[in-house]
Task: structure prediction
Amino acid sequence: MKYWQIVETHMKKLDALHHAQNKITYDLETIAPKKSFNQTALTLETLAGLYYEYLTDEHFLYALENTKAENLSTGQKQIVEEYLKEVNRIRKIPLAEYKLFAKLQTQGHSAWISARESNDFSLFAPVLEEIVSYLKRYATYQGYEANPYNALLDIYEPEMQMNDYDQFFGAIREKIVPLLARLKESKILQQTIHAKSLQGTFAKNDQEKLMHFIVNYVGFDFNYGQLGESAHPFSTSFHNEDIRITTRYDLQDVTSSIFSVLHEFGHGIYERNIAADFTQTPLGTGVSMGMHESQSRFYENMIGRTKSFWQPIYPVLQAMFPQPFQDVTLDAFILSINQVQPSLIRVEADELTYPLHIMLRYDLEKLLFSGDIQVRDLPQLWNEKMEEYLGLTPKTVSEGVLQDVHWSQGSFGYFPTYALGSAYAAQFYATMQKKVCVSRELEAGNLNSITSFLSEHIHQFGKSKTPKQIIKDVTGAEFSRSYYIKYLTKKYEQLFLWEQ
Ligand code: ZN
Result:
């Protein structure tokens, strides 16, 4: 086991570096002073360089390859395989390029913030061009078929390529657009939108208390995690005993933070429940972004927007915020948190129009990486697609092409996993309902059996199974978009179309 011991020692160093990088990034996004950004970026760049050096070290690679002759456990073999994959991916990128990207990510982020504040795309365009051009080179280093975009899609969801997404989004669009048109005619929906039942004034400290109550209620253990505040809600973990989730507070709408914390809780509980054997190894994280989003969107939507979930705790919300909820019945509240209305901002979109926001981004990313369009074309095309898919035109670039943080950090190929994750979640949910009486458990205020189901079938495995394997093992079938389409159709017909 001589070589395994070398691998293990190296693994501890790599994990420690990762831990440091993640903690600094978390700090930057939450409590670090605004002006600390540029100096701290230098630290992150150095750490990225160190990570590259450790990972591509010849002795490490030699040890990894020579463990084959040793009698390793299945878990150890999987760790070696995962490292070999990662080493081979990273080695293809020259060190100078790897560090350049780390720098572009921080520069991009701060340029994006200024551009958004001053509503001026031209402040962001030059660095975005550099990011796109780096990513095209990245795709060449890795190799790809048809479109460089395929190499990027692979980072976030292995085994999912443009062909798969084209079919997926084509089918979603075909079903959702007519359903949206039918919903427009719904009197119940019009009344719900008109009632504005969720509007009020919600003091921040009261909201904080409520969010603590909610995440605790759904099963977040504050002995192993924290709820912080950031401009954009997110979650991260340093190992399975330190989970951080964040939210933001909208003083006019408390539900914004409620659904953010439920979403981030879904990410957090996934990382928390990863088996102890895998944590602090390359297998100790969620297997893909699609799988991660399946967990977050499950708690946010399939649990968090149901009447069964709110039945035991709606009185708590009413007691905390008598204005406006004292005069809003539970049924009216449920209709309001599920109302469907085309909007400009993705993160505030309802569950039904949400995939259309994703399709727009997917279309533009594809065109950008095939070379059919340039960075400078993005604002105009964004608006045209928005009009085509949602019937709305943004008045400013801040509520249009500049609204999301992803591109500024070089995360192209990420967006499609949000929609895919929702579709995975619908398939898991269909299976879960055969084994757990979800609504009865929720009405009894018990989420244990729901979370245990996910933990047992998905969370514990971390990266030791592929997304396809997990879906097959949980549901007994291959991934199918039909569950998602059925789920959305049934849900919105029941809520807004049946009783007319
Ligand atoms: Zn998420």
In short: Residues 214 and 258 are 8 Å apart (CA to CA). Residues 263, 267, 293, 296 surround zinc ion (CB under 6 Å). The first strand starts at residue 225 and ends at 229. The chain has a mean pLDDT of 96.
